[in-house]
Amino acid sequence: MAQPPAPRLISVHAAVQEYVDGLERKTRKSPHTITAYSRDLNEFVRLLNDVGITADASLDDVEADHVDAVFVAYETQRDQRARTAPAPRHSAATVKRFRAAVSAFFRNADELNLVQISPMVHSQFQPRDSPDAGLAPWRKAMDADAAQRLLDVTLTGIPTQRPPGANVPDLRLRDHLM
Question: Which of 27, 51, 82, 97 could be 87's S-S partner, Cβ–Cβ 3.0 to 4.6 Å?
Protein backbone atom coordinates (compact mmCIF):
# COMPACT_ATOMS: atom_id res chain seq x y z
CA MET A 1 0.00 0.00 0.00
CA ALA A 2 1.28 3.47 -0.86
CA GLN A 3 2.26 5.83 1.90
CA PRO A 4 0.41 9.12 2.13
CA PRO A 5 2.54 12.12 1.21
CA ALA A 6 4.45 13.74 4.03
CA PRO A 7 2.89 16.99 5.20
CA ARG A 8 4.37 20.24 3.97
CA LEU A 9 6.34 21.69 6.88
CA ILE A 10 5.08 25.11 7.87
CA SER A 11 5.16 27.03 11.13
CA VAL A 12 2.00 27.62 13.10
CA HIS A 13 2.26 31.38 12.56
CA ALA A 14 2.86 31.06 8.79
CA ALA A 15 -0.05 28.61 8.45
CA VAL A 16 -2.39 31.04 10.22
CA GLN A 17 -1.28 33.93 8.00
CA GLU A 18 -1.66 31.80 4.87
CA TYR A 19 -5.17 30.74 5.97
CA VAL A 20 -6.31 34.30 6.74
CA ASP A 21 -4.91 35.56 3.42
CA GLY A 22 -6.79 32.76 1.68
CA LEU A 23 -10.02 33.74 3.46
CA GLU A 24 -9.68 37.26 2.11
CA ARG A 25 -9.09 36.05 -1.47
CA LYS A 26 -11.16 32.91 -1.84
CA THR A 27 -14.25 33.09 0.37
CA ARG A 28 -17.44 35.05 0.55
CA LYS A 29 -17.14 35.64 4.27
CA SER A 30 -17.83 39.16 5.42
CA PRO A 31 -14.87 41.40 6.27
CA HIS A 32 -16.07 41.38 9.91
CA THR A 33 -15.97 37.57 10.02
CA ILE A 34 -12.52 37.51 8.47
CA THR A 35 -11.30 40.08 11.00
CA ALA A 36 -12.80 38.05 13.86
CA TYR A 37 -11.27 34.80 12.55
CA SER A 38 -7.90 36.51 12.20
CA ARG A 39 -8.10 37.82 15.77
CA ASP A 40 -9.22 34.40 17.03
CA LEU A 41 -6.46 32.52 15.24
CA ASN A 42 -3.78 34.96 16.44
CA GLU A 43 -5.14 34.41 19.97
CA PHE A 44 -4.98 30.67 19.29
CA VAL A 45 -1.28 31.02 18.40
CA ARG A 46 -0.67 33.05 21.59
CA LEU A 47 -2.45 30.46 23.76
CA LEU A 48 -0.60 27.61 22.03
CA ASN A 49 2.61 29.23 23.24
CA ASP A 50 1.26 28.96 26.80
CA VAL A 51 0.86 25.18 26.37
CA GLY A 52 4.35 24.69 24.91
CA ILE A 53 3.89 25.12 21.14
CA THR A 54 5.65 28.23 19.88
CA ALA A 55 4.56 30.19 16.81
CA ASP A 56 7.69 28.94 15.02
CA ALA A 57 6.92 25.26 15.72
CA SER A 58 5.66 23.06 12.92
CA LEU A 59 1.88 23.03 12.57
CA ASP A 60 2.07 19.24 12.45
CA ASP A 61 3.36 19.29 16.07
CA VAL A 62 0.01 20.57 17.35
CA GLU A 63 -1.96 17.72 18.92
CA ALA A 64 -5.51 17.33 20.22
CA ASP A 65 -4.38 17.84 23.83
CA HIS A 66 -2.87 21.20 22.89
CA VAL A 67 -6.07 22.29 21.12
CA ASP A 68 -8.21 21.17 24.07
CA ALA A 69 -5.99 23.07 26.51
CA VAL A 70 -6.27 26.20 24.36
CA PHE A 71 -10.07 25.89 24.21
CA VAL A 72 -10.28 25.60 27.99
CA ALA A 73 -7.89 28.51 28.47
CA TYR A 74 -9.88 30.68 26.05
CA GLU A 75 -13.17 29.91 27.79
CA THR A 76 -11.79 30.79 31.21
CA GLN A 77 -9.89 33.95 30.33
CA ARG A 78 -11.33 37.44 30.49
CA ASP A 79 -12.41 39.23 27.32
CA GLN A 80 -9.70 41.85 26.80
CA ARG A 81 -11.95 43.82 24.42
CA ALA A 82 -14.35 44.68 27.25
CA ARG A 83 -14.37 48.25 28.45
CA THR A 84 -15.48 47.40 31.98
CA ALA A 85 -13.39 46.40 34.94
CA PRO A 86 -13.16 43.60 35.71
CA ALA A 87 -13.62 42.35 32.18
CA PRO A 88 -16.27 39.64 31.79
CA ARG A 89 -15.51 36.19 30.44
CA HIS A 90 -16.03 35.55 26.73
CA SER A 91 -19.66 35.11 25.75
CA ALA A 92 -20.91 31.72 24.55
CA ALA A 93 -21.17 33.11 21.00
CA THR A 94 -17.56 34.34 21.09
CA VAL A 95 -16.31 30.97 22.35
CA LYS A 96 -18.34 29.21 19.65
CA ARG A 97 -16.84 31.47 16.95
CA PHE A 98 -13.33 30.87 18.33
CA ARG A 99 -13.83 27.10 18.11
CA ALA A 100 -15.33 27.44 14.62
CA ALA A 101 -12.31 29.45 13.47
CA VAL A 102 -9.84 26.90 14.83
CA SER A 103 -11.88 24.02 13.41
CA ALA A 104 -12.05 25.60 9.95
CA PHE A 105 -8.34 26.40 10.12
CA PHE A 106 -7.40 22.77 10.80
CA ARG A 107 -9.89 21.46 8.23
CA ASN A 108 -8.13 23.69 5.67
CA ALA A 109 -4.69 22.60 6.92
CA ASP A 110 -5.72 18.97 6.48
CA GLU A 111 -6.95 19.62 2.93
CA LEU A 112 -3.69 21.37 2.04
CA ASN A 113 -1.61 18.57 3.57
CA LEU A 114 -0.10 20.80 6.24
CA VAL A 115 -0.81 18.20 8.94
CA GLN A 116 -0.76 14.40 8.90
CA ILE A 117 -4.08 14.37 10.74
CA SER A 118 -6.10 17.26 12.06
CA PRO A 119 -5.90 17.49 15.87
CA MET A 120 -9.62 18.26 15.79
CA VAL A 121 -10.25 14.58 14.99
CA HIS A 122 -9.18 13.59 18.50
CA SER A 123 -10.24 16.76 20.30
CA GLN A 124 -12.74 16.59 23.15
CA PHE A 125 -14.48 19.52 21.46
CA GLN A 126 -15.91 18.23 18.21
CA PRO A 127 -16.86 20.67 15.44
CA ARG A 128 -20.57 21.13 14.84
CA ASP A 129 -20.62 19.27 11.51
CA SER A 130 -18.93 16.21 13.00
CA PRO A 131 -21.05 13.11 13.61
CA ASP A 132 -19.79 13.23 17.21
CA ALA A 133 -20.65 16.91 17.56
CA GLY A 134 -21.88 18.45 20.72
CA LEU A 135 -21.64 17.50 24.33
CA ALA A 136 -20.65 14.10 25.54
CA PRO A 137 -23.68 11.88 26.20
CA TRP A 138 -23.39 12.21 29.97
CA ARG A 139 -23.65 16.01 29.68
CA LYS A 140 -26.84 16.12 27.60
CA ALA A 141 -30.18 17.15 29.02
CA MET A 142 -32.42 14.52 30.53
CA ASP A 143 -35.62 13.44 28.87
CA ALA A 144 -38.91 14.16 30.67
CA ASP A 145 -39.16 10.68 32.23
CA ALA A 146 -35.63 10.84 33.65
CA ALA A 147 -36.31 14.31 35.05
CA GLN A 148 -39.57 13.06 36.63
CA ARG A 149 -37.82 10.11 38.27
CA LEU A 150 -35.09 12.40 39.60
CA LEU A 151 -37.62 14.86 40.99
CA ASP A 152 -39.69 12.09 42.54
CA VAL A 153 -36.69 10.71 44.37
CA THR A 154 -35.35 14.12 45.32
CA LEU A 155 -38.62 15.66 46.50
CA THR A 156 -40.39 12.70 48.06
CA GLY A 157 -37.81 9.99 48.35
CA ILE A 158 -40.32 7.57 46.79
CA PRO A 159 -40.62 7.33 42.99
CA THR A 160 -44.12 7.49 41.54
CA GLN A 161 -45.18 5.40 38.61
CA ARG A 162 -46.80 6.84 35.51
CA PRO A 163 -49.44 4.63 33.92
CA PRO A 164 -47.98 2.51 31.11
CA GLY A 165 -48.55 4.03 27.70
CA ALA A 166 -49.33 7.48 29.09
CA ASN A 167 -47.83 9.83 26.53
CA VAL A 168 -49.65 12.87 27.84
CA PRO A 169 -47.09 15.31 29.22
CA ASP A 170 -47.35 15.91 32.93
CA LEU A 171 -47.59 19.69 33.19
CA ARG A 172 -46.98 19.58 36.94
CA LEU A 173 -43.41 18.56 36.21
CA ARG A 174 -42.97 21.45 33.81
CA ASP A 175 -44.51 23.90 36.25
CA HIS A 176 -42.36 22.63 39.11
CA LEU A 177 -39.18 22.99 37.07
CA MET A 178 -40.07 26.57 36.19
Answer: 82
